[in-house]
């Protein structure tokens, strides 16, 4: 009886070993199959594209207190001007073209920048509109080859008392941040 139990035990151990080796073999082949590299044959051309958004054709519309016309820096990405406002009704306004001569569509990334010096934040506000009166908003598209006319205006805030006017001339730097257009870009 002991011999019979021993033979059965050997058969069971042999079967277990056989299945174990079979499983290891199958797993090895499967792993090798999954780990094999993928080959793709084809031709791709990747070329540099031009990003060229700039300010152009600037003109002062109104400023009672200054003969200074705003200027565009040499990189054409920043507008500088001197702001002098002395009465409640005074304002400074200029128009400028923003041009996309690049190969990519662009859009306004944020309008939450604040082109007003800290010393004037309590007194002055600004508006940024297209020449047709529509407000410039986040995600406004500027398509490749497009040119849009902008109107920028600085004036005193409503309810401001002239006795509080900080008399001085301030140099303002003005920029509009553009990024490459995404699906969120809005044509207006």
Features of this protein?
alpha+beta, Jelly Rolls, 3-stranded antiparallel beta sheet, elongated, 10 strands, 1 helix, about 20% helix, about 190 residues
Plain-language structure description:
- With 188 residues, the protein is α+β, with helices and mostly antiparallel strands.
- It has a domain at 53-158 and 166-180: Jelly Rolls.
- 18% of the residues lie in helices and 31% in strands.
- It has one helix and ten strands; from the N terminus they run αββββββββββ.
- The protein has one helix at residues 2-35, and strands at 53-63, 71-72, 79-83, 91-100, 106-108, 124-130, 141-142, 147-156, 170-174, 178-180.
- It has a four-stranded antiparallel β-sheet, with no helix packed on it. The protein has a three-stranded antiparallel β-sheet with strand order 2-3-9, with no helix packed on it.
- Strand 2 and strand 3 form a beta hairpin.
- It starts with a helix and ends in an 8-residue tail after the last strand.
- The mean pLDDT is 78.
């Amino acid at each position: 009886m002991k011999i019979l139990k021993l033979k059965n035990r050997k058969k069971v151990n042999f079967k277990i070993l056989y299945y174990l080796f079979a499983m290891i073999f199958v797993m090895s082949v499967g792993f090798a199959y999954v780990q094999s590299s993928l080959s793709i044959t084809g031709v791709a051309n990747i070329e540099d594209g031009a990003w060229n958004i700039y300010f152009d054709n600037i003109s002062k519309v109104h400023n009672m207190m200054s003969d200074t016309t705003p200027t565009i820096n040499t990189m054409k990405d920043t507008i500088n001007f001197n702001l002098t406002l002395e009465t409640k009704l005074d304002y400074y306004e200029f128009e400028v073209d923003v041009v996309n001569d690049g190969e990519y569509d662009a859009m306004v990334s944020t309008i939450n920048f604040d082109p007003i010096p800290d010393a004037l934040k309590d007194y002055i506000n600004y508006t940024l509109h297209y020449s047709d009166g529509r407000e410039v908003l986040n995600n406004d598209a500027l398509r490749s080859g497009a040119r849009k006319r902008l109107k920028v205006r600085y004036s005193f805030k409503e309810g401001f008392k002239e006795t509080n006017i900080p008399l001085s001339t301030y140099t303002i730097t003005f920029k509009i941040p553009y990024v490459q257009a995404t699906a969120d870009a809005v044509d207006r």
